[in-house]
Amino acid sequence: MMIVNILLLFAGLALVVIGADALVDGASGIARKAGISDFVIGLTIVGFGTSCPELVVSLTGALGGNADISVGNVLGSNIFNTLMILGITAIILPVAITPKNKKLDIPLMLVASAVLPVMFFLGEISRISGIVLLALFVAYIFVCFKTDSAPQDNDQDSKSFLEKLSSHTWGAVILIFLGLAGLVAGGRLFVDYACIIARTLGVSDKFIAVTVLAAGTSLPELATSVVAAAKRKGQLALGNVVGSNIFNILLILGVSSVITPLSMSGMSPVDIVVLAVSAIMLPIFAYTGRKNRLDRGEGIVMLVLFFAYYTYLIAKI
């Protein structure tokens, strides 16, 4: 039975990777046609699509009255997105950080990330707090589109079938929907069987949420960002991570806490500190080292911190 569960786990992973490839090409095709920057496409269409698994998991936790699942999934996903995904992406392709990223997008991600430490000290995320988070989310998306002025990307060097298909509007739209479907279905399959395997090993809901569920629901972001980096679309990868982190906190926790107030009692000070440090690292790296980009060395630092945190979590079992 365990072998079947593992096979289904890898089937979910395969769907995620295939879906990510289709989504990146479809989203980039729309960006070229509409004159929208790769970053904003990553922030909105790709960011929302890859956050769908987190949305499903956190809403399920909220409806079931399990705040550890809802909050732990978002906290763990944001740590995974920033440290693991951006770390791997930077190692594959150093990620350029634009003046707009530094002035607007990264600071807003930092502000959004500050929500969880504040709510940790307050003890819960109330319904009123949830409404405020949703209002901030709507305002942020509006500002993103209003301030986007990047030129179209007319790079036609790639000869892959998916990228040729994405050069047509209808083909790009089909790829986006197929990609999102693959990401959501594959992410859900992975999460379901990861939880089955984890519970067979007898670990807590909080551990599952912060590690297994967080990594599982972040697989779309991981696959999308790695594929984007491999295709030399660093801004799409950065937009995907920044967008996903903001979606996770403002939209997912906003909606979940409106359904039911979410207790923060299951989270530890170490979880909150690691989240805060991971959020602060990106703006620090934007202004240090080789400025205006995330380098391979900085990506390695992020990965080291990520694995140190997971080592701590495993040691606490």
Topology:
Elements: H1 2-34, H2 38-63, H3 67-92, E1 95-96, H4 99-113, H5 115-122, E2 124-125, H6 127-147, H7 161-165, H8 169-200, H9 205-217, H10 219-230, H11 234-259, E3 262-263, H12 269-287, E4 293-294, H13 296-315
Antiparallel strand pairs: 1-4, 2-3
Helix pairs in contact: 1-2, 1-8, 1-10, 2-3, 2-8, 2-9, 2-10, 2-11, 3-9, 3-10, 3-11, 3-12, 3-13, 4-11, 4-12, 6-11, 8-9, 10-11
Structure, explained:
- This protein is 81% helix and 3% strand.
- Residues 151-159 have low confidence and may be disordered.
- The longest helix has 33 residues, at 2-34.
- α2 runs parallel beside α11 (234-259), α6 (127-147) packs antiparallel against α11 and α8 (169-200) runs antiparallel to α9.
- It has a single domain (2-149, 158-315), classed as A middle domain of Talin 1 (Up-down Bundle), CATH 1.20.1420.
- The chain is built from 13 helices and four strands.
- The chain has a two-stranded antiparallel ribbon. Strands 2-3 form a two-stranded antiparallel sheet.
- The protein is globular.
- The chain is mainly alpha-helical.
Summarize this structure briefly.
The chain has 317 residues and is mainly α.
Q: What is the helix tally?
A: 13
Instruction: Give the number of DSSP strands.
Output: 4
What overall form do the CA principal axes indicate?
globular
Low-confidence stretches: 151-159
User: What fraction, in percent, of the residue positions are helical?
Assistant: over 70%
Q: What strand order characterises the main sheet?
A: 1-4
Q: Which sequence of SSEs, written as H and E, runs from N to C?
A: HHHEHHEHHHHHHEHEH
CATH class: Mainly Alpha
The largest β sheet comes out as: 2 strands, antiparallel
Rounded radius of gyration (Å): 18 Å
What assembly state would you assign to the polypeptide chains in this entry? Answer: single chain
Structural class: mainly alpha
User: Strand content of the residues, in percent?
Assistant: under 5%
Distance between the termini: 24 Å
User: Would you identify the CATH H-level superfamily?
Assistant: NCX, central ion-binding region
Instruction: Tell me, rounded to a whole number, the average pLDDT.
Output: 80
Return the CATH architecture: Up-down Bundle
- The fold-level CATH name is A middle domain of Talin 1
Task: Give the number of domains.
Answer: 1
